[in-house]
Amino acid sequence: MTKQTMKAVGLIKYLPIDDAESLIDVELEKPVATGKDILVKVKAISVNPVDVKVRSPKSRIEEAPRVLGWDVAGVVEQVGEDCTLFRLGDEVYYAGSIKRAGGNSEYHLVDERIVGSKPATLSYAEAAALPLTSITAWEGLFDRLGISKGKDDNAGKTLLIIGAAGGVGSIAIQLAKHAGLTVIGTASRPESAQWAKGLGADHVINHFEEFLPQLQAAGFAQVDYIFCLNSTEKHWKSMAAVIAPQGKICSIVETDELLNLTLLKDKSVTFVWELMFTRSMFGTPDMIEQHKLLNEVARLVDEGVIRTTTTDKLEPINAANLRKAHAMLESGRTVGKVVLERFE
């Protein structure tokens, strides 16, 4: 039997994004779904900082093209023999696993336990903007920080989101407001501050300035929770200064510098990391929680509680447009999400 092939965008060498070889168009063997995997026909993808980080220049050379991409919206083409959650033709969205081939391909294999049903009210491109950031925001707020989903429980409580206008922050603002929190976001440009306020942030401060004086000027002596989405080490002292006694801090940004945890001791502050790939990386017993939360996000989208964070759309899906999308993220000036649609 002749093996079927598919179009994909991959890399062999890890190069600067302005190098035409940094991301290349390739033909790969079309995969087959077995076990708990489903095979998805990819309709749209989105680009995240993790794509840029993985692709960043290094001396390593791949023997076969490596495919990136951890945001997909598409249609179920095939299901493995152990699948119970999806059927052929179902519309889905998901982020996938960092340990497997990414979704920048015409067809993509993914474990059904980390896949959700696509919001019915969104296009594929609009849906592709949501999975990775929604999972990160949800897990950060509700699993790591332990914030209640009940509005009454959060009356009077405050959340500071550092880097509020990015992909994760854009979802976190909306989820936190729906949960009844007072949300303070950080942004450094007028357009990003306006974006954060448009999504529901009650106040916006500048993350290039000390937090405490700005919070005090806005009427806050401290905050109950901090969700750090930008430069953990840079903001560490400011976070320690403004977090409330017995408060909680969650960060998604790794650091090359040692963090002085002693700054948190007198206040008995909790610090926790969030990585949305943890469940799929380690095959944790609760992997299916990502399926559940994506379905809940889809419900909130369809009810008008959460809106897509798509701000830029490129088509078709090919190496040239993915290089353009990576360059946009590397500029550090994007708000919301960059999505790509349609293989030619």
Structure characterization notes:
The chain is α/β, with parallel strands linked by helices and 344 residues long. The chain has two domains: 5-130 and 278-341, Medium-chain alcohol dehydrogenases, catalytic domain (Quinone Oxidoreductase, Chain A, domain 1), CATH 3.90.180.10; 144-273, Rossmann fold (3-Layer(aba) Sandwich), CATH 3.40.50. Helix content is 28%, strand content 29%. It has ten helices and 16 strands. Strands 3, 5, 6, 7, 8, 15 and 16 form a seven-stranded mixed beta sheet that branches. The chain has a six-stranded parallel beta sheet with strand order 11-10-9-12-13-14, with helices on both faces. A three-stranded antiparallel beta sheet has the order 2-1-4, with helices on one face. α3 (131-144) packs across α4 (167-178) and α3 packs across α9 (288-302). The two termini are 25 Å apart. The model has no long low-confidence stretch (mean pLDDT 96). Its main location: cytoplasm. Residues 18-340 form the Enoyl reductase (ER) domain. Keywords: Cytoplasm, Metal-binding, NADP, Oxidoreductase, RNA-binding, Zinc.
Features:
344 residues; alpha/beta; Quinone Oxidoreductase, Chain A, domain 1; Rossmann fold; 2 domains; seven-stranded mixed sheet; 10 helices; globular
In short:
This protein is of the alpha/beta class and 344 residues long. 28% of the residues lie in helices and 29% in strands.
